C-alpha cells in the first residue's frame, strides 16, 4: 500500500489536509483544479518537501513525526510539470545522469528508449525539443532511475493538441507493462479516465471524492 | 620593473585560485540557505566592499604580526610573522577581494533555481553529488566572471598591500605602489607608462567580463 496522511497546521493561505491509502500497483490519479494540492502531495511523496504527517510505502515509513527520508534515498521517479530536463546535458546525458546513479533495476535502457520513442533525440539539448519530446525524454529518464514509484505532474501540459492524444496513448501502453505503481496528476477528467478508474479528486487541499473502481 | 610586474601577476593569480576554492562553498551555502541569519554571514563577506582598504590592511597586519595570538599558533613551525611577506600579501588580498568572488558565484548558483537540484535528488543524487554534478557545471560562467573580477581587483589594490607588504622589491612591491613611488620621486614619464598600461588592462578586463555576461544572457533560455 501507499499510505499518505498529511495535515498542515492551521494558518493563513493554502492548507493541505489529506488522508488516503491506495494499492502499490497500477495507476492512481490525483484530479483537481489548480491549487487543489496535487503537486504538494507529489513533492511530499518524492521527499522534496517535508509537511507534517506520515507517508508509508510498501510497509516502509518514508516519513513520520520522527523520521524523514530525503528525496535521494526514496527511489522515486518524478516527471515535473513543464521543462524538466537538466538544461546543461543532452537527452542522452540526462538519461545517463539517472542511470549511472541507479545501475540495477527492472528497466532496460534500450527498451525504454524504444518504448518512449526518443531514439532519434538522444544527442539533442533540452531547449531544442518540443513539449511532447521533452516529456517523453523526461519519462524515460525517470524510469532509468529504476524507481519504485513513478510520479507524473500534468505530463500533457505544454504538448500541442495533436501531440496530446498520441502521447496519452503512448503513456497508457507504457503504464500497462511497467511493474511499478504510478501516481498521475491532472486537472482533466477525460485524460485521467483514459488511464485509470482509481481517482482521488482534490479541491482546496482536501479530498473531495475517492473512486476506487477497478 | 619586470620584477614588479611578476610580483603583481603572481599575487593576482594566487589570490584568484585560492579565492575561487574558498568562496565557492560559502557562495553555495549563501545561495541555498533559507535561514534569515545567513545574510549576517553574507553581510560580513561583503564588508570589504565598503571598508577602507587601510582598515583591512591594518587588521590583517596586526593579525600577522609577531605579537598576534594567531602567529603564536605557527611558532612551532618556525613562523613568527607573515607581515611584510608575499604570503601576508596573499592573505590580505583574499579578504580584500572576497566579495568579488562571492557575489558572482552566489548569483550564478541562485540562477540555477531549485528545480534541477530537486530533479537530481529524485534521481538519487545526494547533497555533495548535486553540488558537483549540477551546481558547478551550471554555474561555470559565474566562475569565469568571479575569476576575472578577482584577478583585476587584486591587480588594482593599493591600500592593503601598502599596509601589509611594505613594498619590498621582488617580494611585495606591486605596480600600484610603484606608481605612487615614481610620482613621489617626480618621475612622471615612468609613472605614465605604468598607469596607462593599467588603464588598458582594466578596460580589457571589463570588456571580457561584459562579453562573458552577454553570453550568459544569450545562451541560457
Give a written overview of the molecule.
- The complex is a heterodimer of chains A (214) and B (221).
- With 214 residues, chain A is α/β, with parallel strands linked by helices.
- Chain A contains 6 helices and 10 strands; from the N terminus they run βββαβββαααβαβαββ.
- A 6-stranded mixed β-sheet of chain A has the order 6-7-8-3-9-10, with helices on both faces. A 4-stranded antiparallel β-sheet of chain A has the order 2-1-4-5, covered by helices on one side.
- With 221 residues, chain B is mainly alpha-helical.
- Chain B has one domain (2-174): MetI-like (MetI-like fold, Orthogonal Bundle), CATH 1.10.3720.
- In chain B, 76% of the residues lie in helices and 0% in strands.
- Chain B is globular and about 65 Å long.
Largest interface (CB within 8 Å) is between: A-B, 24 and 18 residues
Global geometry of chain B: globular
The main sheet of chain B comes to: none
Task: Please state roughly what percent of the residues of chain B sit in beta strands, choosing from under 5%, 5-15%, 15-25%, 25-35%, 35-45% or over 45%.
Answer: under 5%
Runs of chain B with pLDDT <50, length 5+? Answer: none
Number of helices of chain B: 11
How far apart the termini of chain B lie comes to 47 Å
- Rounded to the nearest angstrom, the distance between the terminal CA atoms of chain A is 16 Å
Give a short account of the largest sheet of chain A: 6 strands, mixed
Looking across the biggest beta sheet of chain A, what order are the strands in? 6-7-8-3-9-10
Q: State the helix count of chain A.
A: 6
Shape of chain A: globular
Task: Name the helix and strand elements of chain A from N-terminus to C-terminus, one letter apiece.
Answer: EEEHEEEHHHEHEHEE
Total separate domains of chain B: 1
Q: From the 3D coordinates, which CATH architecture of chain A would you assign? A: 3-Layer(aba) Sandwich
Radius of gyration of chain B: 20 Å
Helix content of chain B: over 70%
